[in-house]
Design a protein that fits this description.
The structure is a single chain. The protein starts with a helix and ends in a 5-residue tail after the last helix. It has about 160 residues and is α+β, with helices and mostly antiparallel strands. The protein has one domain: Jelly Rolls (Sandwich). The chain contains 5 helices and 9 strands. It is globular, with a radius of gyration of 15 Å.
């Protein structure tokens, strides 16, 4: 899909929904929605690092979870357009590619090709539920935060 077409797709979706969270709730109602984690995940633990690897099919659209802290991301295979927040344009990236996302970022991706997308988190924890509690902020919790707390988290202040 052409970059301008993807940008228009993202803008059209965001124009109709005030936030990625609202869009995510709407997308869950679409007939083609495949549940909370529709793409194959692989969980890798090594030397105090947790790696979450997702394989997304070509032509799919996904919205990720909001991360509490700055996150290291890698595209190991494929090509995708990533939207990382208000006042940002989608960026088309092709593997291999390494980038970081700021604290409190919720990403939306359109996958031009089958893509392997990786998040890396520093932790010795191996319990996936505990890891998610530490690194992911549920949208309901995020919406209840006051501006000072959001500002602290965006500056990387850990709780």
């Amino acid at each position: 899909m052409d970059d301008l077409v993807v940008q228009k797709l993202f803008l059209d979706l965001l124009e109709k929904h005030p936030s990625l969270y609202d869009l995510e709730k709407e997308m869950a109602k679409w007939p083609e929605a495949e549940g909370e984690n529709p793409y194959p995940l692989e969980h890798i633990f090594s030397g105090g690092v947790y790696i979450r690897q997702m394989t997304a099919p070509a032509g799919s659209l996904a919205i990720g979870k909001r991360h509490r802290y700055e996150t290291c991301n890698m595209i190991l295979k494929g090509e995708c357009s990533v939207y990382m927040g208000e006042n940002e344009s989608p960026t088309r990236i092709k593997a291999p590619f390494l980038f970081t996302s700021k604290p409190m970022t919720k990403k939306m991706c359109y996958f031009h090709e089958e893509t392997i997308f990786v998040n890396i988190h520093p932790t010795k924890e191996t319990d996936l539920e505990k890891i998610e509690d530490e690194f992911i902020i549920p949208e309901e919790e995020y919406l209840l935060l006051n501006n000072d707390k959001i500002k602290q988290l965006k500056q990387g202040v850990r709780q």
